[in-house]
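Model it.
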Amino acid sequence: MSVKPKRHDKLEARLGYRFADPDLLDRALTHSSAVSPGKRVDRSYQRLEFLGDRVLGLVVADLLYRQLPKANEGELSRSLNTLVRKETCAAVARDLGLGAEMNLGESEARTGGANKDAILGDVAEALLGAIYCDGGLGKAYEVIERLFGPQLGLASNVRPDAKTTLQEWAQGKGHEPPLYTEIERTGPDHAPEFTISVRVGAYDTITATGASKKLAEHKAAEAFLIRERVWRDTQ
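Modeled.
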């Protein structure tokens, strides 16, 4: 006998989308810690996250192409990267209240999994993948435009890539390229956190943390640029 999937009526109302297959939505909200190892491929959000990441990238690229007709390829790429990164997806997830809707294992729930950027970002992508599977690209486009549309104007004014800027700055000062070093990795395999340091010449090193090595490197580069007043702190 099959188990009737949990309904998420309030979430569907916030989304402005009603699932024909509620099981897809429930699966998109299910972390791997909430299911047995043998069922994680079928019952957790992992596969839907993979799909949703690609759907999000396609739709956002199309929105930027249409709304920024004078932007060049580099500007479009920077805006795209800003809009599809985990932090932006996590912010959208918080706006939707996904943390309270998620199915988490006991240990993950106890350690604050419902408020971790890495998990929230993944679930937001899985949710978009589920909408695509349930209603097609047109419905996914409508939801993504509604959820990410307010960020489009901000994304068009984003800074250049921090690592590229730091490398160019170091080269202009006659230094070797920035040296990034992994200091520490903490957290479980499915939600790691990396601490990375960056050094340029004789300048003091600076560290930053992120859900991936790449993200931590970018944060460290940005912090270095702000400290040395190459960039202004916008916080």
